[in-house]
Amino acid sequence: xxxxxxxxxxxxxxxxxxxxxxxxxxxxxxxxxxxxxxxxxxxxxxxxxxxxxxxxxxxxxxxxxxxxxxxxxxxxxxxxxxxxxxxxxxxxxxxxxxxxxxxxxxxxxxxxxxxxxxxxxxxxxxxxxxxxxxxxxxxxxxxxxxxxxxxxxxxxxxxxxxxxxxxxxxxxxxxxxxxxxxxxxxxxxxxxxxxxxxxxxxxxxxxxxxxxxxxxxxxxxxxxxxxxxxxxxxxxxxxxxxxxxxxxxxxxxxxxxxxxxxxxxxxxxxxxxxxxxxxxxxxxxxxxxxxxxxxxxxxxxxxxxxxxxxxxxxxxxxxxxxxxxxxxxxxxxxxxxxxxxxxxxxxxxxxxxxxxxxxxxxxxxxxxxxxxxxxxxxxxxxxxxxxxxxxxxxxxxxxx
Length: 400
Fold this sequence. Notes:
Blueprint: H1 10-27, E1 30-31, E2 37-38, H2 44-61, H3 63-73, E3 90-95, H4 100-109, E4 123-130, E5 135-144, H5 150-156, H6 160-166, E6 170-178, H7 187-194, H8 198-208, E7 226-230, E8 243-244, E9 247-248, E10 251-255, H9 266-278, H10 295-306, E11 321-326, H11 331-336, H12 350-368, H13 379-385, H14 392-396
Parallel strand pairs: 6-7
Antiparallel strand pairs: 1-2, 3-4, 4-5, 5-6, 7-11, 8-9, 10-11
Helix pairs in contact: 1-9, 3-4, 7-12, 9-10
Protein backbone atom coordinates (compact mmCIF):
# COMPACT_ATOMS: atom_id res chain seq x y z
CA UNK A 1 0.00 0.00 0.00
CA UNK A 2 1.21 3.51 -0.74
CA UNK A 3 2.41 5.63 2.14
CA UNK A 4 -0.47 7.52 3.68
CA UNK A 5 -0.82 10.99 5.07
CA UNK A 6 -1.89 10.43 8.67
CA UNK A 7 -5.37 11.74 9.41
CA UNK A 8 -5.92 11.68 13.17
CA UNK A 9 -7.57 14.94 14.19
CA UNK A 10 -10.93 16.54 13.39
CA UNK A 11 -9.21 19.33 11.47
CA UNK A 12 -7.85 16.80 9.00
CA UNK A 13 -11.28 15.25 8.60
CA UNK A 14 -12.67 18.71 7.85
CA UNK A 15 -9.91 19.15 5.24
CA UNK A 16 -10.86 15.88 3.58
CA UNK A 17 -14.54 16.82 3.52
CA UNK A 18 -13.65 20.13 1.85
CA UNK A 19 -11.53 18.29 -0.68
CA UNK A 20 -14.42 15.98 -1.57
CA UNK A 21 -16.83 18.90 -2.00
CA UNK A 22 -14.37 20.89 -4.10
CA UNK A 23 -13.69 17.86 -6.30
CA UNK A 24 -17.38 17.39 -7.08
CA UNK A 25 -17.83 21.12 -7.66
CA UNK A 26 -14.99 21.16 -10.18
CA UNK A 27 -16.67 18.31 -12.06
CA UNK A 28 -19.91 20.31 -12.22
CA UNK A 29 -21.99 18.25 -9.79
CA UNK A 30 -24.61 19.86 -7.58
CA UNK A 31 -26.39 18.36 -4.59
CA UNK A 32 -29.99 17.26 -4.91
CA UNK A 33 -32.68 17.67 -2.21
CA UNK A 34 -32.05 14.10 -1.03
CA UNK A 35 -28.32 14.76 -0.59
CA UNK A 36 -27.31 12.75 -3.66
CA UNK A 37 -25.25 14.18 -6.49
CA UNK A 38 -26.89 15.71 -9.55
CA UNK A 39 -24.72 15.56 -12.71
CA UNK A 40 -24.41 18.67 -14.87
CA UNK A 41 -26.10 16.90 -17.78
CA UNK A 42 -26.96 13.53 -19.28
CA UNK A 43 -25.61 14.05 -22.81
CA UNK A 44 -22.60 12.16 -24.16
CA UNK A 45 -20.26 15.11 -23.79
CA UNK A 46 -21.06 15.22 -20.08
CA UNK A 47 -20.10 11.57 -19.78
CA UNK A 48 -16.77 12.33 -21.47
CA UNK A 49 -16.18 15.39 -19.29
CA UNK A 50 -16.89 13.39 -16.14
CA UNK A 51 -14.18 10.90 -17.12
CA UNK A 52 -11.63 13.50 -18.25
CA UNK A 53 -9.83 13.70 -14.90
CA UNK A 54 -9.55 9.91 -14.82
CA UNK A 55 -8.14 9.72 -18.33
CA UNK A 56 -5.71 12.56 -17.78
CA UNK A 57 -4.24 11.01 -14.63
CA UNK A 58 -3.92 7.65 -16.37
CA UNK A 59 -2.08 9.13 -19.34
CA UNK A 60 0.28 11.11 -17.13
CA UNK A 61 1.03 8.03 -15.01
CA UNK A 62 1.86 6.03 -18.16
CA UNK A 63 3.76 8.72 -20.06
CA UNK A 64 7.14 6.99 -19.78
CA UNK A 65 5.71 3.64 -20.93
CA UNK A 66 3.98 5.25 -23.94
CA UNK A 67 7.11 7.11 -24.98
CA UNK A 68 9.15 3.92 -24.75
CA UNK A 69 6.79 1.71 -26.79
CA UNK A 70 5.14 4.11 -29.24
CA UNK A 71 7.64 3.95 -32.11
CA UNK A 72 7.45 0.18 -32.47
CA UNK A 73 3.75 -0.39 -31.77
CA UNK A 74 2.44 2.36 -34.05
CA UNK A 75 3.46 0.25 -37.04
CA UNK A 76 0.48 -2.01 -36.34
CA UNK A 77 -2.00 0.83 -36.93
CA UNK A 78 -3.35 1.63 -40.38
CA UNK A 79 -3.59 4.76 -42.48
CA UNK A 80 -6.92 5.20 -44.21
CA UNK A 81 -5.31 5.63 -47.63
CA UNK A 82 -3.82 2.11 -47.37
CA UNK A 83 -7.12 0.29 -46.92
CA UNK A 84 -8.86 -1.77 -49.55
CA UNK A 85 -12.08 -1.99 -47.58
CA UNK A 86 -13.64 -4.86 -49.49
CA UNK A 87 -10.62 -7.05 -48.67
CA UNK A 88 -10.64 -6.52 -44.89
CA UNK A 89 -10.45 -9.92 -43.18
CA UNK A 90 -11.06 -9.96 -39.41
CA UNK A 91 -9.23 -12.44 -37.16
CA UNK A 92 -9.15 -12.86 -33.39
CA UNK A 93 -5.97 -13.30 -31.38
CA UNK A 94 -6.01 -14.13 -27.68
CA UNK A 95 -3.70 -11.81 -25.73
CA UNK A 96 -1.33 -13.31 -23.17
CA UNK A 97 0.44 -11.40 -20.43
CA UNK A 98 3.94 -9.99 -20.92
CA UNK A 99 3.92 -10.16 -24.73
CA UNK A 100 4.16 -7.49 -27.40
CA UNK A 101 0.49 -8.21 -28.11
CA UNK A 102 -0.37 -7.23 -24.53
CA UNK A 103 1.62 -4.03 -25.05
CA UNK A 104 -0.36 -3.33 -28.22
CA UNK A 105 -3.64 -3.94 -26.38
CA UNK A 106 -2.54 -1.55 -23.65
CA UNK A 107 -1.57 1.21 -26.09
CA UNK A 108 -4.91 0.90 -27.91
CA UNK A 109 -6.83 1.46 -24.66
CA UNK A 110 -5.26 4.87 -24.15
CA UNK A 111 -6.98 6.33 -27.21
CA UNK A 112 -10.56 6.36 -25.94
CA UNK A 113 -11.90 9.34 -24.01
CA UNK A 114 -13.56 6.97 -21.54
CA UNK A 115 -10.75 5.16 -19.67
CA UNK A 116 -10.88 1.38 -19.78
CA UNK A 117 -10.70 -0.51 -16.51
CA UNK A 118 -8.30 -3.36 -15.85
CA UNK A 119 -11.07 -5.91 -15.38
CA UNK A 120 -11.54 -8.19 -12.38
CA UNK A 121 -10.91 -11.84 -11.58
CA UNK A 122 -11.04 -13.92 -14.75
CA UNK A 123 -9.93 -11.96 -17.79
CA UNK A 124 -9.72 -12.69 -21.50
CA UNK A 125 -8.29 -10.10 -23.86
CA UNK A 126 -8.48 -10.18 -27.66
CA UNK A 127 -6.89 -8.30 -30.52
CA UNK A 128 -9.00 -8.04 -33.68
CA UNK A 129 -6.72 -8.05 -36.72
CA UNK A 130 -7.30 -7.21 -40.35
CA UNK A 131 -5.36 -10.11 -41.86
CA UNK A 132 -5.32 -8.72 -45.38
CA UNK A 133 -3.65 -5.44 -44.40
CA UNK A 134 -1.88 -6.86 -41.30
CA UNK A 135 -3.20 -3.99 -39.17
CA UNK A 136 -5.13 -3.73 -35.92
CA UNK A 137 -8.89 -3.23 -36.23
CA UNK A 138 -9.52 -2.98 -32.49
CA UNK A 139 -9.79 -4.83 -29.21
CA UNK A 140 -12.22 -6.35 -26.76
CA UNK A 141 -11.87 -7.90 -23.34
CA UNK A 142 -14.09 -10.08 -21.17
CA UNK A 143 -13.95 -10.15 -17.38
CA UNK A 144 -15.97 -11.35 -14.42
CA UNK A 145 -19.39 -9.74 -14.30
CA UNK A 146 -20.28 -7.68 -11.23
CA UNK A 147 -22.27 -9.57 -8.63
CA UNK A 148 -25.10 -7.05 -8.32
CA UNK A 149 -26.71 -5.61 -11.41
CA UNK A 150 -30.46 -5.14 -11.06
CA UNK A 151 -31.39 -4.88 -14.75
CA UNK A 152 -29.44 -8.05 -15.60
CA UNK A 153 -30.68 -10.05 -12.64
CA UNK A 154 -34.32 -9.18 -13.28
CA UNK A 155 -33.97 -10.00 -16.99
CA UNK A 156 -32.46 -13.43 -16.29
CA UNK A 157 -34.77 -14.14 -13.36
CA UNK A 158 -32.06 -14.66 -10.75
CA UNK A 159 -32.44 -14.79 -7.01
CA UNK A 160 -29.37 -14.39 -4.80
CA UNK A 161 -28.57 -18.09 -4.54
CA UNK A 162 -29.00 -18.95 -8.22
CA UNK A 163 -26.92 -15.94 -9.24
CA UNK A 164 -24.07 -17.07 -6.99
CA UNK A 165 -23.99 -20.47 -8.69
CA UNK A 166 -24.52 -19.39 -12.29
CA UNK A 167 -22.45 -16.23 -12.54
CA UNK A 168 -19.44 -18.37 -13.49
CA UNK A 169 -21.07 -18.95 -16.91
CA UNK A 170 -21.39 -15.24 -17.66
CA UNK A 171 -18.72 -12.71 -18.64
CA UNK A 172 -18.84 -8.96 -19.08
CA UNK A 173 -17.29 -7.08 -22.01
CA UNK A 174 -15.46 -4.41 -20.02
CA UNK A 175 -13.50 -3.12 -23.02
CA UNK A 176 -14.52 -2.97 -26.66
CA UNK A 177 -13.72 -0.66 -29.52
CA UNK A 178 -12.21 -0.15 -32.94
CA UNK A 179 -9.15 2.03 -33.47
CA UNK A 180 -8.86 4.57 -36.31
CA UNK A 181 -9.44 4.42 -39.19
CA UNK A 182 -11.58 1.29 -38.69
CA UNK A 183 -13.76 3.07 -36.11
CA UNK A 184 -14.80 5.49 -38.86
CA UNK A 185 -16.13 2.47 -40.78
CA UNK A 186 -18.34 1.27 -37.90
CA UNK A 187 -15.62 -1.17 -36.91
CA UNK A 188 -16.94 -1.07 -33.35
CA UNK A 189 -20.10 -2.84 -34.51
CA UNK A 190 -18.00 -5.44 -36.32
CA UNK A 191 -16.00 -6.14 -33.14
CA UNK A 192 -19.12 -6.34 -30.98
CA UNK A 193 -20.49 -8.93 -33.37
CA UNK A 194 -17.37 -11.10 -32.99
CA UNK A 195 -18.07 -11.68 -29.30
CA UNK A 196 -20.95 -13.95 -30.26
CA UNK A 197 -18.76 -16.47 -32.12
CA UNK A 198 -17.51 -20.02 -31.82
CA UNK A 199 -13.90 -18.91 -31.34
CA UNK A 200 -14.76 -16.91 -28.23
CA UNK A 201 -16.68 -19.81 -26.69
CA UNK A 202 -13.77 -22.17 -27.46
CA UNK A 203 -11.19 -19.76 -26.02
CA UNK A 204 -13.20 -19.53 -22.80
CA UNK A 205 -13.50 -23.31 -22.51
CA UNK A 206 -9.79 -23.80 -23.15
CA UNK A 207 -8.87 -21.36 -20.39
CA UNK A 208 -11.51 -22.07 -17.76
CA UNK A 209 -12.92 -25.57 -18.23
CA UNK A 210 -10.81 -26.97 -15.37
CA UNK A 211 -10.93 -23.89 -13.15
CA UNK A 212 -11.46 -24.30 -9.41
CA UNK A 213 -13.06 -21.67 -7.20
CA UNK A 214 -10.55 -19.78 -5.04
CA UNK A 215 -12.94 -19.65 -2.10
CA UNK A 216 -15.11 -22.76 -2.55
CA UNK A 217 -12.37 -25.07 -3.83
CA UNK A 218 -14.97 -26.60 -6.16
CA UNK A 219 -14.44 -27.40 -9.83
CA UNK A 220 -16.56 -24.90 -11.73
CA UNK A 221 -17.06 -26.73 -15.08
CA UNK A 222 -17.79 -23.32 -16.56
CA UNK A 223 -19.23 -22.74 -20.02
CA UNK A 224 -19.59 -19.29 -21.51
CA UNK A 225 -23.29 -19.02 -22.34
CA UNK A 226 -23.70 -15.23 -22.54
CA UNK A 227 -21.88 -11.91 -22.36
CA UNK A 228 -23.18 -8.68 -20.86
CA UNK A 229 -21.89 -5.16 -21.31
CA UNK A 230 -22.83 -1.62 -20.38
CA UNK A 231 -22.61 1.45 -22.55
CA UNK A 232 -19.86 3.95 -21.89
CA UNK A 233 -21.91 7.03 -22.82
CA UNK A 234 -25.49 6.53 -21.68
CA UNK A 235 -27.47 5.17 -24.62
CA UNK A 236 -25.14 3.16 -26.84
CA UNK A 237 -24.55 3.84 -30.52
CA UNK A 238 -22.65 0.55 -30.96
CA UNK A 239 -24.96 -2.03 -29.41
CA UNK A 240 -28.37 -0.58 -30.27
CA UNK A 241 -29.70 -1.78 -33.62
CA UNK A 242 -26.84 -4.30 -33.76
CA UNK A 243 -28.62 -6.83 -35.96
CA UNK A 244 -27.46 -9.27 -38.60
CA UNK A 245 -29.86 -11.46 -40.54
CA UNK A 246 -32.81 -10.11 -38.58
CA UNK A 247 -31.39 -11.22 -35.21
CA UNK A 248 -30.14 -8.94 -32.44
CA UNK A 249 -26.57 -9.62 -31.33
CA UNK A 250 -26.91 -7.53 -28.15
CA UNK A 251 -30.29 -6.97 -26.53
CA UNK A 252 -30.97 -3.90 -24.41
CA UNK A 253 -32.28 -5.06 -21.01
CA UNK A 254 -32.40 -1.84 -18.99
CA UNK A 255 -30.18 0.72 -17.33
CA UNK A 256 -27.81 0.76 -14.40
CA UNK A 257 -28.78 2.73 -11.29
CA UNK A 258 -25.99 5.32 -11.52
CA UNK A 259 -23.79 4.02 -8.69
CA UNK A 260 -20.03 3.88 -9.17
CA UNK A 261 -16.67 5.41 -8.44
CA UNK A 262 -15.42 6.81 -11.75
CA UNK A 263 -16.13 10.35 -10.49
CA UNK A 264 -13.66 9.75 -7.63
CA UNK A 265 -10.12 10.44 -8.83
CA UNK A 266 -7.35 7.99 -7.97
CA UNK A 267 -5.71 10.58 -5.72
CA UNK A 268 -8.94 11.28 -3.85
CA UNK A 269 -9.65 7.56 -3.53
CA UNK A 270 -6.24 6.97 -1.95
CA UNK A 271 -6.89 9.81 0.48
CA UNK A 272 -10.24 8.25 1.47
CA UNK A 273 -8.68 4.83 1.81
CA UNK A 274 -5.79 6.17 3.89
CA UNK A 275 -8.33 7.84 6.16
CA UNK A 276 -10.09 4.53 6.76
CA UNK A 277 -6.76 2.86 7.44
CA UNK A 278 -5.85 5.54 9.98
CA UNK A 279 -9.08 5.11 11.94
CA UNK A 280 -8.62 1.32 11.85
CA UNK A 281 -11.49 0.49 9.52
CA UNK A 282 -11.25 -2.97 7.92
CA UNK A 283 -12.57 -1.65 4.59
CA UNK A 284 -9.21 0.02 3.97
CA UNK A 285 -7.65 -3.35 3.13
CA UNK A 286 -10.67 -5.36 2.04
CA UNK A 287 -9.58 -5.84 -1.56
CA UNK A 288 -8.42 -9.46 -1.33
CA UNK A 289 -9.30 -11.64 -4.32
CA UNK A 290 -12.78 -13.05 -4.01
CA UNK A 291 -14.38 -9.98 -2.47
CA UNK A 292 -15.54 -8.70 -5.83
CA UNK A 293 -15.08 -5.68 -8.09
CA UNK A 294 -17.08 -3.36 -5.82
CA UNK A 295 -14.11 -2.77 -3.51
CA UNK A 296 -13.60 0.86 -4.53
CA UNK A 297 -17.31 1.65 -4.21
CA UNK A 298 -17.44 0.09 -0.73
CA UNK A 299 -14.40 2.10 0.37
CA UNK A 300 -15.85 5.35 -0.94
CA UNK A 301 -19.24 4.83 0.70
CA UNK A 302 -17.72 3.80 4.03
CA UNK A 303 -15.29 6.74 4.04
CA UNK A 304 -18.11 9.20 3.32
CA UNK A 305 -20.18 7.75 6.17
CA UNK A 306 -17.22 7.86 8.58
CA UNK A 307 -16.62 11.50 7.64
CA UNK A 308 -20.26 12.33 8.43
CA UNK A 309 -21.08 12.79 4.74
CA UNK A 310 -23.94 11.25 2.79
CA UNK A 311 -22.86 7.81 1.41
CA UNK A 312 -25.17 8.52 -1.55
CA UNK A 313 -22.46 10.86 -2.84
CA UNK A 314 -21.09 7.64 -4.39
CA UNK A 315 -24.10 7.72 -6.71
CA UNK A 316 -23.06 9.81 -9.72
CA UNK A 317 -26.46 9.55 -11.42
CA UNK A 318 -25.12 8.73 -14.89
CA UNK A 319 -27.04 5.61 -15.87
CA UNK A 320 -25.57 3.21 -18.42
CA UNK A 321 -27.54 1.04 -20.80
CA UNK A 322 -27.17 -2.69 -20.06
CA UNK A 323 -26.97 -5.28 -22.87
CA UNK A 324 -27.16 -9.07 -23.03
CA UNK A 325 -25.70 -11.27 -25.79
CA UNK A 326 -26.37 -15.04 -25.70
CA UNK A 327 -23.79 -17.42 -27.14
CA UNK A 328 -25.80 -20.53 -26.29
CA UNK A 329 -29.29 -21.00 -27.68
CA UNK A 330 -30.46 -21.97 -24.18
CA UNK A 331 -28.42 -19.34 -22.32
CA UNK A 332 -31.28 -18.14 -20.10
CA UNK A 333 -32.32 -21.67 -19.19
CA UNK A 334 -28.73 -22.55 -18.20
CA UNK A 335 -28.35 -19.39 -16.14
CA UNK A 336 -31.66 -20.08 -14.37
CA UNK A 337 -30.68 -23.67 -13.64
CA UNK A 338 -33.40 -25.15 -15.85
CA UNK A 339 -30.92 -26.81 -18.26
CA UNK A 340 -27.60 -28.49 -17.48
CA UNK A 341 -26.40 -29.06 -21.05
CA UNK A 342 -25.24 -26.01 -23.02
CA UNK A 343 -26.33 -25.76 -26.67
CA UNK A 344 -24.20 -23.78 -29.11
CA UNK A 345 -26.19 -24.70 -32.22
CA UNK A 346 -25.68 -22.22 -35.06
CA UNK A 347 -22.97 -20.16 -33.35
CA UNK A 348 -21.10 -18.43 -36.22
CA UNK A 349 -17.37 -18.43 -36.81
CA UNK A 350 -15.34 -15.22 -36.81
CA UNK A 351 -15.02 -15.51 -40.59
CA UNK A 352 -18.77 -15.81 -41.11
CA UNK A 353 -19.70 -13.05 -38.67
CA UNK A 354 -16.90 -10.82 -39.96
CA UNK A 355 -18.02 -11.15 -43.56
CA UNK A 356 -21.60 -10.40 -42.57
CA UNK A 357 -20.52 -7.32 -40.62
CA UNK A 358 -18.42 -6.06 -43.52
CA UNK A 359 -21.37 -6.33 -45.89
CA UNK A 360 -23.84 -4.91 -43.37
CA UNK A 361 -21.87 -1.92 -42.03
CA UNK A 362 -18.25 -1.45 -43.04
CA UNK A 363 -18.33 -1.46 -46.85
CA UNK A 364 -21.48 0.69 -47.17
CA UNK A 365 -20.02 3.16 -44.67
CA UNK A 366 -16.79 3.47 -46.67
CA UNK A 367 -18.81 4.48 -49.73
CA UNK A 368 -21.01 6.98 -47.89
CA UNK A 369 -18.24 8.56 -45.81
CA UNK A 370 -14.83 8.33 -47.56
CA UNK A 371 -13.23 10.78 -45.13
CA UNK A 372 -11.55 7.88 -43.31
CA UNK A 373 -8.89 7.94 -46.03
CA UNK A 374 -7.53 11.18 -44.58
CA UNK A 375 -6.50 9.43 -41.37
CA UNK A 376 -2.76 8.92 -41.05
CA UNK A 377 -1.03 6.32 -38.92
CA UNK A 378 0.76 8.90 -36.77
CA UNK A 379 -2.53 10.64 -35.95
CA UNK A 380 -3.16 7.90 -33.39
CA UNK A 381 -0.37 9.11 -31.13
CA UNK A 382 -1.37 12.71 -31.62
CA UNK A 383 -4.81 11.72 -30.31
CA UNK A 384 -3.24 10.29 -27.17
CA UNK A 385 -0.88 13.25 -26.71
CA UNK A 386 -3.42 16.00 -27.35
CA UNK A 387 -4.09 16.63 -23.67
CA UNK A 388 -0.84 15.72 -21.96
CA UNK A 389 1.94 16.10 -24.55
CA UNK A 390 2.85 12.48 -24.05
CA UNK A 391 4.56 11.39 -27.24
CA UNK A 392 7.77 13.32 -26.66
CA UNK A 393 9.92 10.61 -28.16
CA UNK A 394 7.71 10.32 -31.22
CA UNK A 395 7.52 14.07 -31.72
CA UNK A 396 11.28 14.43 -31.25
CA UNK A 397 11.60 12.17 -34.27
CA UNK A 398 9.36 14.64 -36.18
CA UNK A 399 6.60 12.12 -36.71
CA UNK A 400 3.94 14.25 -35.00
